[in-house]
From TrEMBL:
It comes from the Bacteria. It comes from Aeoliella mucimassa. This is Uncharacterized protein.
Length: 243
């Protein structure tokens, strides 16, 4: 979702033996806790570690709220990490329950105002740009609820076999567009993506909607019908890919 409000709350860190207790700043965004300590969160780890252990004050110990925090054009995106993208050691000890549970999209003006209020919050420019694989992961999280039981890229291609209709693209054109997107991701999943965010109210390119088999039939307004490729996020913005 596109974030609207943020609030900070300062507290003393939980006691740890006789060590001096530093201040922690808890960050809540639209009622969702993003981190329990802005200062100690592992913002720039891979993946980002947003929860800090209350026993040792370390984010790597908590292994909770694992997320991708990446630049999306001038915006900032925060969403659950992809389990399959974790290193082998972490895949053995974490599950879906360890992942951050929300998709948050920050306009640059909001993030900068948050940073002005809490200087420990990293600047947008300090985060890496979103990669092709991460962008696909973020986009697939926009699937209708009825289709979310198959959010993997390969499952999306299989799901296209149950496509009933596409508008304005024909069904074959829609399948071809999805295939082209998946090929683009697979050829270089770790490459950063250049692009820009446009709000739907000011977006002039026609958007394509897919209708799938089901009761009722799930519909997904997913991408632009013309070049350049634009992926619909949060039902209200389009990320237009450059190049």
């Amino acid at each position: 979702m596109i974030c609207k409000t943020a609030s900070f709350e300062q507290t003393l860190a939980p006691p740890q033996e006789d060590l001096p207790r530093p201040m922690w700043t808890r960050l809540n965004v639209d009622g969702i806790e993003l981190t329990n300590s802005v200062e100690y969160a592992g913002w720039h780890e891979t993946p980002s570690e947003l929860s800090v252990c209350e026993s040792c004050w370390s984010s790597c110990c908590a292994m909770q709220n694992l997320a991708v925090v990446a630049r999306l054009g001038e915006w900032l995106a925060c969403f659950p990490a992809d389990l399959t993208a974790l290193d082998a050691m972490r895949r053995e000890i974490v599950s879906e329950s360890n992942l951050f549970g929300h998709v948050l999209l920050f306009e640059p003006e909001l993030w900068r105002s948050m940073q002005a209020e809490c200087q420990a919050l990293p600047a947008i420019d300090s985060f890496p740009g979103i990669t092709r694989g991460q962008l696909l992961n973020l986009w697939l999280r926009q699937l209708p609820q009825a289709l979310l039981n198959q959010p993997r890229p390969g499952d999306l291609r299989n799901r296209m076999e149950s496509l009933l209709a596409s508008d304005p693209l024909s069904e074959s054109e829609a399948v071809q567009r999805i295939d082209k997107l998946l090929e683009w991701v697979n050829e270089s999943p770790h490459s950063e993506v250049q692009g820009s965010v446009a709000k739907l109210g000011g977006h002039l390119s026609p958007l394509n909607t897919l209708h799938f088999d089901g009761h009722p039939s799930p519909a997904w307004t997913c991408c632009t019908a013309t070049e350049p490729l634009g992926l619909v996020l949060d039902h209200s913005i389009v990320f237009e890919v450059e190049g």
